[in-house]
Amino acid sequence: MSANQNRLIGGEFLVKNASYNDIFTFEDLSEEQKMIMESAKEFIDKEVVPNKHRIEKKDYALIEELMKKIGELGLLGVSVPEEYGGLGMSFSTTMLVCDYISGATGSLATAFGAHTGIGTMPITLYGTEEQKQKYLPKLASGEWFSSYCLTEPDAGSDANSGKTKATLSDDGKEYIITGQKMWITNAGFADLFIVFARIEDDKNITGFIVEKDKAGEGFSLGEEEDKLGIVSSSTRQVFFNEVRVPVENLLGERNGGFKIAMNALNVGRIKLGSACLDAQRRILDNSLQYAAERKQFNTSINTFGAIKEKLADMAVSTFTSEAGSYRAAKDVEDAIADNITSGMSHADAELKGIEEYAIEASILKVWISDATQVVSDQGIQIYGGMGYSKDMPMEAAWRDARISRIYEGTNEINTLLCISMLVKRAFKGKLDLMSPAKNVAEELMSIPSFDIPDYSELFAQEKEIIENLKKAFFMVAGAALQKFGAELEKHQQLIIATSHIMQEIYMVESAMLRAEKIANVKGADNAKYAVKLVELQLFKSVEIVKTEATKAIISFAEGDEQRMMLSGVRRFTRYNEYPNVINLKTEIADYIIRENKYIF
Ligand SMILES: Cc1cc2nc3c(=O)[nH]c(=O)nc-3n(C[C@H](O)[C@H](O)[C@H](O)COP(=O)(O)OP(=O)(O)OC[C@H]3O[C@@H](n4cnc5c(N)ncnc54)[C@H](O)[C@@H]3O)c2cc1C
Prior knowledge:
Layout lengths: L30 H18 L3 H4 L4 H13 L18 H12 L3 H13 L2 H6 L2 H13 L4 E4 L15 E4 L5 E12 L6 E8 L6 E6 L7 E3 L13 E12 L3 E2 L5 H19 L1 H17 L1 E2 L2 E2 L4 H37 L4 H11 L1 H26 L9 H11 L7 H17 L6 H12 L14 H25 L7 H31 L1 H33 L2 H14 L8 H15 L5
Parallel strand pairs: 1-4, 2-4
Antiparallel strand pairs: 2-3, 3-7, 4-5, 5-8, 6-7, 9-10
Bound molecules: flavin-adenine dinucleotide (FAD).
């Protein structure tokens, strides 16, 4: 029996329309999940928020201390199976913890994400039984901390090109690792290092577990990097000069390190999206409070339309980010459950479940990190000159937001990946992209209807538009693939434009399904403002799709073909009844100003 029989598989949101019944939303959190959320939130409010001035002064020891305390609460082990000392919680719960631990400061968010995600998951997913028993209980409790060493001075986005070498010793008992890693989070206080190195002239790198205490003199660390943001997150270079590691510490298979690194990043990416959520909520709450208190021209600045517009935009961004994140979280969780039912081991089930939604993970990483940057920028603007001051929370929020667009695969790499992973899934026969592309091509030749349909049902027009945005995607992607075939990968700007269309579709559809669920489960009255948020998100997404599709088409189509496709863009992004965007933003802003809080 499937955990959710109607679950769409990875990437399938483009070819099928999900029903609100089949998606998970923030409003669906169980009582147990809400308790965990509250305890994470309480911890951050008590232990982190009052200490933010220390965190902004490179207090690395404080971050280590906070990590220890999070360990004592059990929250470092949420994704570690119970038999290895963790809490073995569901995937959506692990996303929730990540969400609420990460909001107040990027320094702690980064330390937490690196330890629980890329630092622990490779062992959970690929470790031998002995490795899991030896290391996971220590990592789950916070007795030990971990870090993940993939990046090198000459191997960043091209992660498989690292020069770090691992050579088997003459007696065959050890690997001898030599090389240099850089930008390694948690390096300053980690006890365990997941290290990727190449054995002989292998095509791919291989993963190793290196214990600092046993690494000997050949192991050393660089100074702490002087960074723009996340200033108390430890980031150092790690040097390996003939560091001896027992052969039992090879992780997974020889030559299998790139796969481990990428799968660890799939988890890292989806969780990075969730790690930006509470940052958005907190920035908005702070902005609401400041805008209520700050007076200019004898009135609170929150009475000005210019400020209201920003507050409303921030709420739209936060609502949509939450919708996408929790939708994907539960899809992964259900895929894991289905894999277990079909006989896979827990580790394999989790690995395959996360891999299944790698496209969605990349979308969430890019969209939410970009959105958080914009929200923090709007926060600074609402604070005016005080936004620029280190004494106020906005300045650090803005600097901290910047890194999320760089690590766990830059946003460019993830944006490109969305399309290449989609095409791969189609080639493997997992997704039928040909039929929708063909249908759209046929539809383009037909005369459009100018009848105005009945839009009295909730989201009737919005659903029609989102379906049309999917057609716009297939029109552009189908034609581009036909034009360039395998050469398409050389046309990055075109792929990026197409990928942005896809990203908007997933996010706005998630927001709409969330609001529809609220309306159906809690009643229309309770969904009143959520519906307005969706209308605003859709208006914005349609504009983005229009721009990206037009840009893409002009780059490769000419003459009649171009004219026909541009008329397709107009057709697939058409509103029959426009929402009054300015009124909607005013209503949203007035509501959250009244409540003095983001309360969706
Ligand atoms: C604070 C911090 C913490 C980090 N923590 C860790 C960690 O714990 N472990 C770890 O292993 N790494 C870590 N990193 C490294 C991080 O993952 C890399 O910085 C990131 O992957 C980008 O690599 P790079 O810096 O070499 O940039 P580059 O790869 O040199 O990229 C530079 C620019 O070129 C673009 N680019 C590169 N290749 C392509 C391409 N094929 N197509 C289009 N555009 C391209 C990029 O998008 C980027 O805009 C961290 C980095 C920072 C700054």
